[in-house]
């Protein structure tokens, strides 16, 4: 077998690191962030995306992201709502966006246009 062994083999490892990150952030009076979580896990964004896609870890990662999101949603009660909204829109793009796009005509099929020179 080639390559490095996986950094995480159990969901509990990720959850324990998240719990530690959450406690440390709260002790420092800091907000939870995805990047802070990545730093605690000592992994890159691409590695995080791979972990998130793996069935074995996807539920744990989603629970951790829910805690991060909840921390920011609770921050909306404070004075810096604009910064909070900016973070939510960028860190949780699918859930917080200003517009929704709906395709009501093609049901996802591509539209081909044939340009004809006017006569």
- Total number of strands: 0
Main pleated-sheet profile: none
Give me the strand/helix succession. HHHHH
By DSSP (H or I, 4+ residues per run), the number of helices equals 5
What structural class do the secondary elements suggest?
A: mainly alpha
Q: In percent terms, what proportion of residues is strand?
A: under 5%
Rg estimate, integer Å: 20 Å
Average pLDDT works out at 86
End-to-end C-alpha gap: 66 Å
Share of residues in helices: 55-70%
Low-confidence stretches: none
Shape: flat
In brief:
The chain has helices at residues 11-28, 34-41, 45-53, 55-75, 81-91.
Q: Which characteristics define this entry?
A:
single chain, 119 residues, mainly alpha, 5 helices, 56% helix, flat
What does the secondary structure layout of this molecule look like, with pairings?
Elements: H1 11-28, H2 34-41, H3 45-53, H4 55-75, H5 81-91
Helix pairs in contact: 1-2, 1-4, 4-5
Protein described:
The termini are far apart. The mean pLDDT is 86. It is built from five helices and no strands. The chain is mainly α and 119 residues long.
């Amino acid at each position: 077998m080639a390559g490095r062994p996986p950094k995480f083999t159990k969901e509990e490892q990720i959850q324990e690191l998240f719990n530690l990150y959450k406690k440390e952030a709260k002790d420092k009076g800091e907000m939870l962030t995805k990047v802070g979580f990545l730093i605690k896990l000592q992994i890159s964004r691409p590695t995080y995306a791979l972990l998130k896609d793996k069935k074995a870890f996807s539920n744990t990662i989603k629970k951790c992201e829910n805690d991060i999101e909840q921390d920011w949603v609770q921050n909306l009660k404070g004075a810096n709502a604009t910064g909070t909204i900016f973070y939510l829109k960028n860190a949780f793009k699918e859930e917080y966006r200003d517009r929704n796009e709906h395709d009501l005509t093609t049901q996802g099929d591509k539209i081909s246009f044939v340009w004809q020179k006017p006569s």
